[in-house]
Amino acid sequence: MKEFSSLLHNLILTPSRNTKIKLLQDYFKTLDINRAYALAILSDQLSFKFIKASKLRELVYEQVDQHLFDFSYDYVGDLAETISLIWPKKAASKAQNLSSLIDNIKKIKKSEINKEFGKILNQLSHNERWTLIKICTGGLRIGVSERLVKTSLADLYKKSVNEIEEIWHGLEFPYENLFRWLRNETKKPKIDFKKLFHPMMLANPIDEEKDFNRLKASEFQAEYKWDGIRVQLMVSSKKVALYSRTGDNISSAFPEIIETTKGDAVIDGELLVGKKFKPYGFNDLQQRLNRKKASKELQKKFPVFIRAYDILFYKGKDLRKLFLFERRKFLEKFQKENKSNQIDLSSIITFSNWRELSKYKNNFNDDLNEGVMIKLKNSEYLPGRKKGYWYKWKKNPKLVDAILMYAQRGHGKRSSYYSDFTFGIWKGNDLVPIGKAYSGYTDKELLVLDKFIRNNTTNKFGPVREVKKEIVLEIAFDDIFSSNRHKSGVAMRFPRIHRIRWDKPINEIISLEEFKKEFKIS
Amino acid sequence: MDFINHKLFIKDINVHIDPILPKKIAIITHGHADHARFGHDHVIATRQTIDIMKIRYGNKCAKKFTSLRYGQKYSIKNYDFTLYPAGHILGSAQVLIEKDNHRLVITGDYKVGKDETCKNFKLVKCDTLITEATFGLPIFQHPDPKDEIKKLIHSIKINKNNSHIVGAYALGKAQRVMNLLRQQKYNETIYIHGSLEKLCQYYSKEKINIGKFEKVSSKDKSFYEGKIIIAPPSALKDRWSRRFPNPIICMASGWMTVKQRAKQQGIELPLIISDHSDWNELLDTINKSNAKNILVTHGQEDALVYYCKKQNLLSKPLSIQGRNDEEIE
Questions:
Q1: Nearest beta carbon to residue A77 from set B260, B307, B324
Q2: Does an H or E element contain B235, and which?
Q3: Residue A365: per-residue pLDDT
């Protein structure tokens, strides 16, 4: 555990790719069960969300005064680090290895988490505590991509990265077959590709100025960009499985899809909530997300379907090397052969030039799509966000000018900066907050805002600072709903700071009434 | 204690403690720039603090100087002033003010831990304590500086082709790092940024063991392989640091406790070496001082004020202009 936690510590602090590779190679020189765990953790394959943030807080409140913890968390901006630093020092730390530590944790009964997990934290050093909490809550954020781990292993054991990549998603903890092959004891492991999740092909945002001059409209096809969640559906006579974009198996949450789908294929599509292939809003979809299971009632109230974009395998045949327009024919064939109330096809928009397409992008009346996708007809199905094949062209965001009211320190790489901003508009002579944004600004703008906040605080409420009302922010947002959870009666989807309106005085900001009228909120 | 206001000003006798702007009479706790300023009429401080002010601002940085030994009483009307060691840097002092049987202590910046580069902190009992709170959060529990300096020595051993640039404040921290290296029997010449030279010479003259040092000069790049270079934090990102071969950027500071902070600043080897008290030392000092009234100045005052109130001590934050957050050490 000590070795692994100092590896993570060093990886976080090293900006250089080469040093990161060197650190990884030093660590993976031996290949044992601890390294197997490390590999699973680094490549995010250890599905081990053992403890939730709320439970951790509960645990730490048993040890430390709640207010003192909250002050500290606000300052540090990272739960794992705050807990690991504030945890009272008990006995000297006991050396433990990574694998037995995780095995022990897996054995803990739910009812005894507080007691047993607390005991384990007591035995670790500060850095080990930090590592363990990161592992148990998921999401290391140490600036190491899966690709970098593969590259390090490939270089160290004189294999090609492509070879590792090819079998990667078929490998399973504890990677015995991989390790033996790396040590040249056996041949490359054989993987049954059809049963696996296949990394998805993603799109890059289009650069209107550059790309449209460069790209020929006739070489591309367009589809609507639906506002659901991207999924991969695997169907065979034996098994049906649904995976999220990141490869998590989410089958159990959508039984109606699993039970009704037939055929033999791997389909790429968008999961949407709606009836008769008419999607409801994203708000409704959220009722079905982040749940392990769906009750009958929920299935009835928020029925789901898949709008298929693409097909990767058909009757055992790998189609990924075919071009998009060729794959489309297979997709249509699959659809015809396996009629389903849960799957329809994403329709193709015909257009002759980019200007014509822009009408589709913006004029589509209801708010259920986010814009259009532009795909090269001759594109193979390439995993990741490769440049030059698929583009997304989002609708212009909605905009509103609002007044900066409150600020709070950010988390992660923005910790210590006042980077979470609450903004509001007029309601009579008062301001009422309409949303909160923590992105969109440039680094420079962040510094200016941070400085303004420090110098113009008029009031403090715990970690929140109220500021002098003089800065106007132009807020961009994707959508807006009425909401009875907020004082203003509105909730924005993905608000971010578009720019700072230095030129605009606060008395020119619109009222809540005008705002609601403009966006047709009752 | 109504005699002193939130700016550490005693109106009655026109005395300020660590004022930012030029004043008539200024008692200076130590030589850091956020406490010791140019242009007062009369400066009262320890001999070393006065020496340091003269080195930094010139011999005429004040019209008149009065140097006090630790423990020596100095009276202005019915106010008695005594300086006690604060253990922060060479010459640093706490100020005890006695008036009408009321004892008030201003700690200034202080640390309780052992430090060979200055006289160690002395606890002074009092009725009112004005304490600093730079590291006033329970996450700050400084490790043993010896273990931290060993990390630097270890890194030099395993990275022979790299240079190590250590960011450290020019006054106090730089010399402490040098002294800690010497305690671990690191006997090589230590290379320093030009802005540290006069202060290092002064520390040597005061018989502080910082060993052999030399100003960085335009030598062949490879000369600095395997060497330690100490520079003020501002120089780390400057063009100045590009002259060194494969530099590993280190920083000696209490702020290095928080990984994300180290990462933000591009520090590869954080060394948690602080000249301020950590959370436990702040609490310990508050408790042992017997003070019933605690005022908390610059830093993370909220948590400390909260703690004191929970202990039934009268407590409130004292915001002193010009000293905000993380810019100071």
A1: B260
A2: helix B233-236
A3: 55
Cα–Cα distance for residue pair B214/A472, rounded to 1 Å: 53
User: Would you say domain A398-518 falls under CATH 2.40.50.140?
Assistant: yes
How many structural domains are present in chain B? Answer: 2
Instruction: Please state the ipTM of this predicted complex.
Output: 0.91
Assigned architecture for domain A2-137: Orthogonal Bundle (1.10)
Residue from B100, B148, B123, B175 nearest B257 by CA: B148
Crossing angle between the packed helical segments A66-76 and A79-86, to the nearest 10 degrees = 130
Query: How many residues are present in chain A?
Result: 522
Q: Is residue B3 part of a domain?
A: no
**Disruptive mutation site among A8, A23, A415 for chain B (greatest number of B CBs within 10 Å):** A415
Q: B-chain residues within 8 Å CB-CB of A415?
A: 258, 260-261, 264
The residue ranges of every structural domain in chain A are 2-137, 204-394, 398-518
Residues of B in contact with A66 (CB under 8 A): none
In degrees, rounded to 5, the angle at the alpha carbon of residue B138 between the alpha carbons of residues B121 and B181 is 50
Pairs of residues, one from chain A and one from chain B, whose beta carbons lie less than 8 Å apart: 68
Q: Does B34 lie in the same domain as B105? A: yes
Successive 10-residue mean pLDDT values, chain B, 329 residues = 87 95 97 95 98 96 97 97 98 97 96 96 97 95 96 94 95 98 97 96 97 90 93 84 88 94 90 97 96 88 92 82 45
Q: Does domain A204-394 have CATH number 3.50.50.60?
A: no
A129-166 pLDDT tens trace? 999 998 888 777 787 877 789 899 999 999 988 788 76
Residue A89 structure tokens: 């020092």
Give me the CATH number covering residue B303. Answer: 3.60.15.10
Q: Which residue has the tokens 């990272």?
A: A78
pLDDT confidence tier of residue A67, bands split at 50, 70 and 90: very high
State mean pLDDT over A336-340. Answer: 92
- Cβ-based contacts of B302 with chain A (< 8 Å): 71
Would you list which residues of chain A are within 8 Å, Cβ to Cβ, of chain B? 9, 12-15, 64-65, 67-69, 71-72, 75-78, 81-82, 85-86, 89, 130, 412-413, 415-416, 454
Interface test with B, best of A12, A74, A85 (most B CBs within 10 A): A85
Per-residue pLDDT for A293 more than 90? no
Count CB-CB contacts under 10 A for residue B174.
28
**Measured distance between the N- and C-terminal CA atoms of chain B, rounded to whole angstroms:** 28
Mutate to test the interface with A, among B248, B256, B258 (most CBs of A within 10 A): B258
C-alpha distances (whole Å) from A176 to each of A3, A128, A157 are 21, 26, 15
